[in-house]
Design goal:
Blueprint lengths: L2 H23 L19 H35 L3 H31 L4
Helix pairs in contact: 1-2, 1-3, 2-3
């Protein structure tokens, strides 16, 4: 049964989509709780804004990966496919989530570095 990882992927998709929307709109103030929070992006308000804007497109991709992974798991579950296929979907989905999150961090840090203090 792949319900817990499916729920996790749905949560990844929803959180990433909401953050991307807030980042694109410039409505995510510098804070200690949400956003791409690195030493570089928290250096100043300008660095924060630049970093969040740069990371937003990656978070849209992250939301798509989460949704696609959850949908893939649902199909595997409903089709009664081999359990190994479900494990492959879980590992593949979460692996791509990690890679895209790291790309978002890199983009945010680069954009923050480009901003003068």
């Amino acid at each position: 049964m792949f319900v817990p990882p499916m729920i996790g992927l749905v949560l990844v998709a929803v959180v990433a989509a909401v953050l991307a929307r807030l980042q694109r709109a410039g409505r995510l103030p510098r804070n200690g709780a949400v956003g791409v929070r690195t030493r570089r992006t928290q250096r100043s308000d300008a660095a924060w804004a630049a970093g969040q804007a740069a990371a937003a497109r990656h978070l849209v991709g992250l939301a798509a990966v989460g949704a696609a992974g959850a949908l893939g798991l649902l199909v595997v579950q409903l089709a009664g496919a081999v359990e190994a296929l479900g494990h492959a979907v879980v590992l593949g989905s979460y692996g791509v989530v990690i890679v895209v999150a790291l790309l978002a961090r890199r983009a945010a840090d680069r954009a923050a570095d480009a901003v003068a203090d």
